[in-house]
Write a structure and sequence with these properties.
single chain, alpha+beta, Jelly Rolls, 2 domains, four-stranded antiparallel beta sheet, 1 helix
């Protein structure tokens, strides 16, 4: 016999056990929470850069790492369709590696700099957010750099 407030599939806490509607929704909300948390954490590590701006930065212990173990910094900017940009990366401390990516993180162009200088020139295909990754050609590359984002 069922008691007051009981349901045939109730666990006594107001939720259905097994594969009921509440269980599926709970899992979906937990998964969405983890995705949102990862997105927010990722977003905090992006430094905004404006066209016309120069940033003094450094690759150092504690920065994010690529799959090969090299350090990198990530910058984000808003660009317009048809806009011609130039990105310059200079460092006396490491051999720079510069990457331009679209809003999905897909690489558009990259340049492994020689003599401490890497650069990219590109006409943007879409009005969107774009990412610039500052990295070193060598795994252990660390040190100070200057990043310039210009419109041509």
């Amino acid at each position: 016999m069922m008691g007051e407030g009981s349901h045939p599939k109730s666990n006594g806490r107001g939720f259905e056990s097994g594969r009921g509607l509440h269980s599926g929704w709970s899992r979906a909300f937990v998964a969405l929470g983890f995705i949102l948390m990862a997105f927010l954490i990722e977003g905090q590590a992006q430094t905004p850069i404006r066209i016309g701006q120069t940033i003094e930065g450094a690759l150092e212990e504690g920065d994010r790492k690529m799959a090969d173990g090299s350090y990198y910094d990530l910058y984000v900017f808003r660009g317009n369709r048809g806009q011609r940009i130039a990105i310059h990366l200079r460092s006396k401390d490491f051999q720079p590696y510069l990457t331009l990516m679209d809003e999905n993180g897909v690489e558009i162009l990259s340049d492994s700099g020689e003599h401490g200088h890497a650069h990219i020139r590109h006409t943007l295909a879409h009005s969107s957010r774009y990412f610039i990754r500052v990295n070193s050609v060598r795994r252990g590359g660390k040190g100070r750099y200057q990043l310039h984002l210009l419109e041509q």
